[in-house]
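Q: My collaborator sent me two sequences in one message, no labels, and asked for predicted structures for both. Can we handle them in order? The first one she listed is below.
A: Yes, handling them in the order given. First sequence, followed by its structure tokens:
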Amino acid sequence: MQSNQRLCLQGTEWTIMEMTNCSLSEPDKDILDAIELWYESKRSKRGNVNRNVMAVGIGISELLQNRFPLTDDYVQSDKGSQVRGLSGACIKTVLARHGETRAFASEGGRTSRGTLPMALELAKIINSALPSDTCEDTRLEAANAIANFFVERIQVDFFNRQRIKVEIDLQKPISVIVDDILDQASLRSDRPTGTVAQHLVGAKLEMLFPTIEIGKDNSNAADQQTDRSGDFQINDAAFHVTVSPMAKLTDRCRDNIRNGIRPIVVVPHDKVSFAYGLFESEGLGNRVQVIALESFIGINIEELSFYKRGLIRLNVARLLAHYNKRIEDIEPDKSLQIEIPQWALDEMDAHGE
């Protein structure tokens, strides 16, 4: 056998083939470079990639395990409306093969109208990147490399970006929507309710005072570790956001008053009475303003919207976007972001945001 030839398995027989058609490294590199460009082209301006894009990648890698080239007839199911073999079970199997056992998607994007066009598009990219006479072991290694790429993207862009899921029902008062968000945060094992509350208030203040720089401290940064008089300071007012008002909060508010700063304490509605009692016991009952967090945010959003249904819809979408941007910029745990519903994304897109 010559130096530019290689022994490759074709079906059940070994065949001598030219190295140009049986190289395992170069086709993989060409394919992965092309696939990465395709994948990143599907990333929204907010940095998200629809999980159907990832599902398509997994499905195509499985089809490549069995045949090449990836013709349209092969990629499409027999009825021509879906991607052949793509299902939640298929994706679960591939993920498990690569050591990933977390649940991804029950349908695997199979029923989405945009899935098949994406699959056909990706198949053409792979067809262009691989030589038409590619041997079986090269094809199999390429298929595995593609699967590995998409498993990694699922881990980074889906599992590691899992967000707080909450039904945003615009038939409810905005204060109740805020309460729903806090309730969902409280169900997590890490109980990030305080962090979520702080950044919801920060998001609301950013919307209310767009020309004022609103504090962007990590939730672990206590007031005394910054040059601010509270979690947020706007002119002569200090906002203290907490889901668990404690005695040390009275000391901070007393310092505010001593320095000519008006303390405003923002707590969940079920902690308002406790907070009032806390300040009363310290002789600060008539010096500290205590506000229910849900109403503090909800009423302002509705006022900003002039109580118009369409504007309320837009401003709720903006609140979620501001909140997620704060988490993206400040917090190391990006899973604290809220999963924004499609209607909210569409609303912001319609307004060029």
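Q: And the one she listed second?
A: Here it is, processed independently of the first:
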Amino acid sequence: MGSGFLTFFSTPSLGETEFQQGVKYRVAQEGELARLISTINVVKSAKVSLAIPQKTLFTDNQEDPTAAIAPESYQLGGQKKRQIETIVHLVASAVEGLAPTNVKVTDQNGALLSRGFADNSAGGKMNDNYMYKSRFEKELEAKVVRQIEEVVGKDRFRVNVSAALRFDRQTIKEELVDPDQTSVVSEQVVDEASTGTDQFL
């Protein structure tokens, strides 16, 4: 999947229902994710199963999507944690509304490999980054939908936005204010880069 890609589905084929189109899209996602996971050095192939509930009008009743990943011939190396995090990161970033905590990675014997990631600091940070990315994508998707609707009308297309965001840099703005004059005395902007590689693709 390319950086910041946008997938556009035109008018469904004659006789094809919205449900059928959704199933085709999910199967395509599973195949593409399996292909991407298999590019990791320690993975020969992988089976991906996505459960994506249909959207409801009431957000309180909306179920969360889940994903089950079963890498085949998975040779755990010294970077086991990092390898599993990479898979979780990849899948959660590619599926709209999918939280990293709802991505389960198992070995060939069915043992859960991704257990406990949400309980440590790295997992918490990944979830925070995911939530920000999700909000950004939804806002951008809504803007794109409004623009396309003006041209082709409602319910005649499907839009999916996946953004590539970097979380290894931060900009800090500092202002010194004179309390007597209520004016800015000095201003400093610092752009910092961390040593990590936190990035949602």
